[in-house]
Amino acid sequence: MKAIVSIENLVSQFVLSFWTPVFVGIFLAIVFYALRPRNKALFDAAAKMPLRED
After folding, report:
1. Residue 2: pLDDT above 60?
2. 44 in any annotated domain
3. Contact in structure between 13 and 22 (CB atoms under 8 Å)
4. Which pLDDT score, from 0 to 100, does residue 34 have?
5. 43 Cβ neighbours under 8 A, 6+ residues apart
């Protein structure tokens, strides 16, 4: 039995082969940015912002 080439199969393969690694890379970049020690003071200030009285 021959495999039928369809648009759904082509799109599925494209998504799996291209977009998944792109989004994993974006996710890892965001995690790396958030966990850098240089950004700790910035995130601490942002966390205290709702409790600050103006």
Report:
1. no
2. yes
3. no
4. 93
5. 34
